[in-house]
Automatic annotation (TrEMBL), chains A, B:
Catalyzes the oxidation of 3-carboxy-2-hydroxy-4-methylpentanoate (3-isopropylmalate) to 3-carboxy-4-methyl-2-oxopentanoate. The product decarboxylates to 4-methyl-2 oxopentanoate. Homodimer. This is 3-isopropylmalate dehydrogenase. The record marks 141, 192 as: Important for catalysis. Pfam families: Iso_dh. It comes from Gilvimarinus algae. It comes from the Bacteria. NAD(+) binds at residues 76-89, 282-294. It is found in: Cytoplasm.
Amino acid sequence: MSRNIMILPGDGIGPEIVREACRVLEAVNDSFDLKLNFVDELIGGASIDVYGEPLTDAAVERARECDAILLGAVGGPKWDTIDRAIRPERGLLKIRSSLELYANLRPALLYPQLVDASSLKPEVVSGLDILIVRELTGGIYFGEPRGIRTLENGEREGYNTYKYSESEIERIGRTAFEMARKRNKKVCSVDKANVLEATILWREVMDRLAPEYPDVALSHMYVDNAAMQLVRAPKQFDVLVTGNMFGDILSDAAAMLTGSIGMLPSASLNKHGRGMYEPCHGSAPDIAGQGIANPLATILSASMMLRYSLGETAAADAIETAVGEVLDQGLRTADIYTSGTEKVGTVQMGDAVLAAL
Amino acid sequence: MSRNIMILPGDGIGPEIVREACRVLEAVNDSFDLKLNFVDELIGGASIDVYGEPLTDAAVERARECDAILLGAVGGPKWDTIDRAIRPERGLLKIRSSLELYANLRPALLYPQLVDASSLKPEVVSGLDILIVRELTGGIYFGEPRGIRTLENGEREGYNTYKYSESEIERIGRTAFEMARKRNKKVCSVDKANVLEATILWREVMDRLAPEYPDVALSHMYVDNAAMQLVRAPKQFDVLVTGNMFGDILSDAAAMLTGSIGMLPSASLNKHGRGMYEPCHGSAPDIAGQGIANPLATILSASMMLRYSLGETAAADAIETAVGEVLDQGLRTADIYTSGTEKVGTVQMGDAVLAAL
Ligand SMILES: CC(C)[C@H](C(=O)O)[C@@H](O)C(=O)O
Ligand SMILES: CC(C)[C@H](C(=O)O)[C@@H](O)C(=O)O
């Protein structure tokens, strides 16, 4: 029984870092006999250049038939002036929504070897291990009505709709509780229930789910306080669950606490646990093509894919151990370089992981 | 010509810290012959307890006739179970909206004496001086329609509306450009124009204003990136301007970078420069009544009031100099205490500022 993996390199540093992740996947494919089959597709600017749109319907259909997707990153200045409706990011939103990848898992994990890369004091972040569970197919990202209209007085107004139904909240809530069960058994649900009705319902549904997970402690926090607490004392958190917009903001802040966003993978899953895996960082057009991008977040995304969507724990463990080893060897790409370590490029980093495997 | 100042102590530590700020105001009132006249009113839980609502219409009317307002903080567990529509926070939203206090200025300033209180490395934050300009009477906080409704399939949905008109964006944009003129001449406008139409218009209006302020450099940043950059390298910013919701989140994160949110004042101004002044921190019910709260943010809010709404620069300078002196003397309330300094209570801190004046 072979499994089809869709590869979406995307733009900017995407192709370079995905190439290294694919080499790693091919290596474990052989050594663990995983029977993975790779299918290449275009997304983002790369797709715009060929098809005039950031993700074709045909690509979505092929993605549906795959067991998992590995994505690099999308976007870049080349496409910054075209109509917003067909910019690279829209390809990302389209695949998330079409495949109902509602559960976005974004770990913020500090590698002990990289504690100096953080802008926070070592005692504040050492040992940091948070999982942000972000709702990814609802909320203000997809709410209708939306647009820019002309008001009666002649001026224009831009508007969006923030909404969540009970079932949307419930399914992401369950993901958070289930993830917490495998971790430190704490869920902090982040909302703005003192102002927004959409999040009053959010809080209510989380409270309703809690008794079904008596082994997990649920707490609530307003989003402004959560942003503060992430800066002040991030280790107080285990699993943070929140909506699409707040999750976008808080997961980036949390990732940056580690000082090494080039290390952080993410998963976006549907209700069957199928999903898309990608690094937390963007397409970094400023360093694209220079061979200096950090491929580790993408390599770790591949490992996350093996673990969550393909059930290949041994292969996933092997990759993670190999990444730990190259860090122990002192190898660092430019983004995580600190004095006393050895600066390497994208391919050298990939080589080192392959050698450690 | 006397000026009326409304005093709204509010809840939790509000009364304690406002009391110290009033002593300071009375002192400068005498020494600088300011002819200030104080009017006391209730807001938040204190008003709920007496009138059954967090801010009466009569209080709003009296506030309209005042030249400025000094607020402590609102909220606390005592009122956490009453109907959300009349909780303490609603009083705050009502006064902001009724008086059209659309321009919320939240400085994130690191006092050199307090660099150790930050959770960030000293080199990342020393010298930090950012001004967040947050739109305060529009956006998703006040957008209609809003509520919780039952869908056709029987489940409920919570919804809110995020909207901004050109004139709302323009006036807050002008505030940001004008503030930047008096500072380092950089405005970074924060939006999510890659996803939200409301912020596409936001970006457009900011770009349209820019040529009127050729001496100020305008840049744009997505909110997720802004949250990251605040953690990674906050000193890149001068003035940050953004909508109500993003401003709520980013200003709290920025304040926490300093490690001393107990030091940070804020102003909320209307188009005539009249306004309300309050500390950035909340009502801290956990330490209310213990006499240990830091009154300096409220004292500095009083000084900001003298500067922005009353044009009393000399008195404002005197207060700020006095605060600097007590910090130099090594006096610290518990929230900013680090070893080697002298821990003092709320009243002692107020005494010290009065002595330094
Ligand atoms: C590119 C953008 C549309 C996207 C988002 O906002 O979700 C990105 O910031 C992310 O977090 O994956
Ligand atoms: C109390 C709450 C309604 C308020 C807000 O969200 O504006 C507070 O967080 C603030 O920032 O002043």
